[in-house]
Structure formats: C-alpha cells, structure tokens
Amino acid sequence: MTELLLTPEPWIALATLTILEIILGIDNIIFITIVVDKLPEHQRNSARRLGLLLAMFTRIALLLSITWIMSLTVPLFHLFDHAISGRDLILLGGGLFLLAKSTHEIHDSIEPGEDEGPNLKPRGYVITLVQIALIDIVFSLDSVITAVGLAEHLWVMVTAIIISVGIMMFAAAPIGEFVSNHPTFKMLALSFLILVGVSLMGEGLDFHIPKGYIYFAMAFSLAVEMLNSRLRSRQSGQ
C-alpha cells in the first residue's frame, strides 16, 4: 500500500477523475438549483447539501456494484434493428424526464397560475430529494463507467467522487442564489437541461453527441447573457 501511494500513477488518476467528476457534475448542479428553487428559502441550503450527499453516495454505490453496471450494456431486445440495453432504457427515461421537467418549469415561469407568483408554490422537501436522487443515477452512469476505465483502484475512484462533491457543495449555494435572482439565467439553465435531456436520449439510441459541444454552446450562451446583463445594468444606471 505504501509503494502504491508513492507512485505517481494513482495521484494522476485521482486528479484526472476529480476534474472529470466536477465537469460531469455541472448538469447535476444545474438540476439541483432548479428543483431546490421551488422550496422555501430556509430549506434550500440544506436541500442542496443533502442532494449532493445523495449524489455522492449514489455514485459510490454504483462503483461498488460495477459488475451490475457493466451488465446493463447487454442488449435486452431490439427495436428497429437497434439493440436496447438496460443502460439505454435508463438514459431514455432520464432524458424524457429532463425534457418534461424543464419544459414544465419554463411554461410555469412564463405563464404562472392565477394564484401563484413568478416563484411558484413550494414543493415537498422529500419529493425534491427523491427527484435529485433519481436523476443523479442517470447522470452517474457514464461517469462511473468512465472512472472504471481511467483508474484501477477503487480508493482512487471513491476519493475523486468525495473531493468533487465537496467542491460542488461550495459552488452550489452561490450558483443557486445567482440563478434565483436572475430569471434570464434561470431560463438559460432550463434550456441547458433540455439540451442534456436530448443528449441522454441520443445516447440511449446509440447516437453519440459529444458533451464538449453542449458545454461549449452553454458557455457561449452564458458569456453572451453576461454581456447582456452587464449592458442592462449600465443602461439602468444612467
């Protein structure tokens, strides 16, 4: 064990996996931000922390059951000459859920009910955590499979997950508050979730959309919106 700790390969794998987990966790943070925003303000921080802890334990549990995870790639049936596996069904279901959820949130934000303000009525605390736990399973599948391919030691993979979740816990609160206070950025985040939902469904149908394209589109849109926000602030200050 001592020799293992003194060799550079595990540490390189740990740094690589940690960065990868943070990047792949961006969509998770956005989803958590959107669903937690429906809670009363005094419950949001605890819901974010519990949601990210659920994400951490979900990913570790998937790592420990990697044999079952890898078996999900075995075809279950064929649809239009396309082999459908358990992984494909999970990705398709998760993609449909994200599309439906994001579309519903956009509709409610633009056309709130008669008895509701722009921030909508609060939803149940437990229901929010359940949604976070379920969608994280979808987000975790590919990252867990990638982690197994990049690292040989379980402790490296588990440590990378714990470090990345710890970093995301510090980032989640300011991101959540910023999105809540800026409706246009919230709309941008919901649009990003729609892109992720389409990407998941594409993956489920064996149509691979490089995530780099989606992240680049999101980063470009975010940069443009930040410029617009700054311009609006300067114009309102004049």
Automatic annotation (TrEMBL):
Keywords of this entry: Membrane, Transmembrane, Transmembrane helix
Gene Ontology CC entries for this record: membrane
InterPro entries found in the cross-reference section: Integral_membrane_TerC
Keyword check for Transferase: no
Localization of this protein: Membrane
Main location: membrane
Membrane topology: Multi-pass membrane protein
Highest taxon of the lineage: Bacteria
Chain ranges passing through the membrane: 12-36, 57-78, 124-148, 154-173, 185-201
Record family assignment: Belongs to the TerC family.
Protein name: Membrane protein
Organism: Endozoicomonas numazuensis
